[in-house]
Amino acid sequence: NNRALKMNLGITADTLYSVFGIQNLPDDYVIKIPIKGTIDNPKIDASKATAKIIALSTLQQSSGIGSIIGGIITKFQKDQDIPPAKRPFPWEGKVRRRAPARVDTILDFFK
Fold first, then answer.
1. Contacts of 87 (CB under 8 A, 6+ apart)
2. Count of CB atoms situated within 10 Å of the CB of 20
3. Residue 42 φ/ψ, nearest 5 degrees
4. CA 45/CA 50 separation, integer angstroms
C-alpha cells in the first residue's frame, strides 16, 4: 500500500524546553516519536511520546544522585536511528519562543 505511513517525528531539545520546560539537554538532542497509519489517517504513538517526555521531565527534577543517574539514562536514551539536530534551523530568529509550559500540562499535549 503506497498510502501507508511509517515515519518518525523528531522533537528537538529547544522544543522540549519551550513546550515542557525540560532543560539541560544537549543542543543536538532529538526524541523520536513514531508515526504510523495512512496518509489520510496518521497515528502518533502518544504513549511512547508521553513516556519519553515524562521520563526526561522526571529525571530533570531529580537532585543529588538522581540527577547523576538521570544524566546517564538520558545519554543512553538517545534514539540512535534519529540524526542529531543540525543548527541553524530555517525558522530560527523568525519564530518567537513561548515561556516554558508547566510540567503538569505534559499529559494534555497529546489529547
1. 27
2. 21
3. -70, 145
4. 9
Kindly report the number of other CB atoms within 10 A of residue 109's CB atom: 13
Give tens-digit pLDDT for 17-49.
Answer: 888 888 878 888 888 888 999 999 999 988 888
CA distance 106 to 61: 14
**Amino acid sitting at position 14:** D
Q: Report the distance separating Cα 52 and Cα 54, nearest Å.
A: 6
pLDDT digits (tens, 9 = 90+) for 65-97: 555 555 555 554 556 677 777 777 777 776 666
Beta-bridge mates of residue 2: none
What distance in Å separates the CA atoms of residue 25 and residue 23, rounded to the nearest whole number? Answer: 6
pTM greater than 0.85 (yes/no): no
Could you tell me how many residues make up the chain? 111
- Closest CA relative to residue 101, chosen from 27, 32, 31, 16: 16
- Running DSSP on this structure, what letter comes out for residue 109? G
Matching residue, cell 538522581:
66
